[in-house]
Amino acid sequence: MEARTFLVTGASGFLGYHMCKYLVTKCQIVRGIDIEVFDYPDIADGVTFFKGDIRDR
C-alpha cells in the first residue's frame, strides 16, 4: 500500500493522539497540529508536529 499524507488536527488530544498512533503503525505520513505541546515520545519520530491554531491567519 502506498503511503499517504494525513493532517491530524487536535493531535495532542486524546482522539488526535490515538489517530496519529494508528496512522504511524500503518506506515502513513502523519502531520499533526495543535495549540498544545505534542508530548508523546512513543510516536514522536513518526509525526511531524506543528504548534499553532488552525484559526490563525
From TrEMBL:
Pfam families from the UniProt entry: Epimerase (PF01370)
UniProt-listed Gene3D superfamilies: NAD(P)-binding Rossmann-like Domain
Domain NAD-dependent epimerase/dehydratase: 7-57
InterPro entries to which the protein is assigned, alphabetical: Epimerase_deHydtase (IPR001509), NAD(P)-bd_dom_sf (IPR036291)
Residues in the signal sequence: none
Protein name: NAD-dependent epimerase/dehydratase domain-containing protein
Naturally occurring in which organism (per UniProt): marine sediment metagenome
